[in-house]
Each structure stands twice: as C-alpha cells, then as structure tokens.
Amino acid sequence: MEKILTKAEIEALLNAVFEGRIEPEKELAKAEGSAVNYDLFNTEAYRGFVPNLDIVYDGYIRYSRITLSNRLRKSVEIKKVGAKSYKFDDFIQTLPTPVCMAIFKLEPLKGAALLAMDSSMAFAIIDSVLGGTSRTALNPNRLFTNLELKLVEKVVIDILADLEKAWLPLYPAKVNLLRMEMNPRLVTIVPPEYQVVTMMVKVQIEETPGTMIFTVPIMTIEPIRDKLKEGMQFDLMAIDPQWSFRLSSEILDAPLEMSVELGNANISLRELLDLAVGDTIMLDKPSTSELVVKVEGVPKFQGVPGIRHGNKAFQISSILADKGTIK
C-alpha cells in the first residue's frame, strides 16, 4: 500500500523546498541509489595521514643531536622540516643525485624503510670521520667510493640506533640495517604505486648544511595505527624511560666540596696588614666546642676534629636540619 501524505505534510514539504532546507535533486539521487567512487589508494590510510608519527622523530632528534656531535666531534644541529606523503615511485624521482641511502627494517613490522641523505651531509660525515675540517674541499657531485660508503655506514648505524630508542616508548621495534645504496633505481622497498610517508630533517654539521629524509611505507605503520591514534605512552617520549635512573646514578657520583669551619674572627684592616708569621688570631669558639661541617657552603653536620691513622679527621656527632638546627 502506497504511503499518501496528508495535506499538512504536503504543505510542510513545499515550505521546506521553497525555503531551501530540502533540495529535490539530492533527495531523488538518494532514493534512486547511485554509485560512489572509492579510491583504494586515496583513503585516510593511504594519504599519508599518520597521527603523532612526528613525535617519534622529535625523540630521534633529541638523541641524535648528542650522538652525532660526539661521533663527529663537531657541533651538530638537527631540525625537523616536515612530513609529506608520496607514491613511492614519485618519491624516488624527488631524490637528488648523487644520494646516499640506507635500507633498514623495523622488526617485527612488515616491509622495509629508507633513510636518504644528500651528498653534502654524506661528504661532511666522511670529512669528519677522517679528521678533516668543515673547510676541506670535497666534490659533492660525484658518486661515493666503496670506502666512503663504508665510513657513512658506521654513522648510519648510530643514527638507526637513535631511531630505535625513539620508537621504544610507542612500539618496541628493532631497527636493523639491511644495506647501503647510492642508486635510487636499485631501491624498491614497496611497489611503485604504494604510499610512503616521509620526514625531512635539516642537519647542520658546523658550517656544512645537509638533509636527511626518513621514508616509511604506510603498509608498515598500518598495524600500529591505532596505537598512534591513541597517543599511547607519548608522555614517555618527552623523557627517556631510563632517564630518572641514570640521572640518579650521575647525581650520586657528583663531586661535592665539604669544609669544616673552625671559627670566625673580626679584625680591622690595620690589624690584617700588621699580621706576621707566628701571630695568633683568636677565634670566637673554644677549642672544645663542636665544629660545623658545610657541604657546598650549606651547614649539614656537627662534630669534633681528631686524628685517624695519622691523618686529620672529623667525627660527626649530629646532623643539622635545613635551617641549621639539630635534628
């Protein structure tokens, strides 16, 4: 049985059409049912939208700034430029020539990832490892020799170790270097039409600027996308999980200056100028009174002086509170 509108319903429908609240064309299209285009390679998962992934690279930058400075014995500054999404074939065509590339794996995630650095940074690393200065003349427009590639590989291993530490609070991935390469045409971490997400960072090795690009396939990150969306354990990324323990250990080994105050005396400038060898200065404390021990200038203990095993010593008799009172 067909549904027939009442007079009141018809009037309400006409008013809605005249007022623009209902568009007849769209309503008819919904009723008829029309096909909707769906691009499998242009969904959220393949547009390079990876929430919070940049936080991983923030952690990497903190670690690697120190690692590279120590390794190269030079001042190194690293800044994040930004993330972009490409089809892998399009990304390969954006790489400069020559380029130094490291293919690595994030175990147990599937697929491989890529680290690319331009020739300026690669030759700056080679120059530093061999003891040169940033003013050493190098030709950045030639291919790398096998020896130069090996020298860069040693630094890349350090870079990947820092990347592994940056991933740890989010996902315990093991970063393993597979091989070094300098010909982009020989690199195929995913099929050409697959999407990858890249992160470019600028590296300044003293006066020499350079660029690194981290490239991870979307298919590699897909299994942990939910963790990225939830922002799981991101609060730990701001601080190394072992930071508190290491800080405590370092503080316990920090050297402190401890001094024992025998007493005080007030003298005039004339008396000071008249002092000679053999003169006696009277202090404001009797020889039998307890002395105060100061740690970094702060009163902490009281005790009595003495001699032990032929050395001057001090025996603590009481511990002072924060305001110098005895506990």
Automatic annotation (TrEMBL):
InterPro entries: CheC-like_sf (IPR028976), Flag_FliM (IPR001689), FliN-like_C (IPR001543), SpoA-like_sf (IPR036429). It comes from the Bacteria. It holds the Pfam family FliMN_C. Keywords: Bacterial flagellum, Cell inner membrane, Cell membrane, Cell projection, Chemotaxis, Cilium, Flagellar rotation, Flagellum, Membrane. Its main location: other. It is found in: Bacterial flagellum basal body; Cell inner membrane. It is a peripheral membrane protein. Residues 250-320 form the Flagellar motor switch protein FliN-like C-terminal domain. SUPFAM superfamilies: CheC-like, Surface presentation of antigens (SPOA). CDD domains: FliM (cd17908). FliM is one of three proteins (FliG, FliN, FliM) that forms the rotor-mounted switch complex (C ring), located at the base of the basal body. This complex interacts with the CheY and CheZ chemotaxis proteins, in addition to contacting components of the motor that determine the direction of flagellar rotation. Belongs to the FliM family. This is Flagellar motor switch protein FliM. The lineage of its organism: Bacteria, Pseudomonadati, Thermodesulfobacteriota, Desulfuromonadia, Geobacterales.
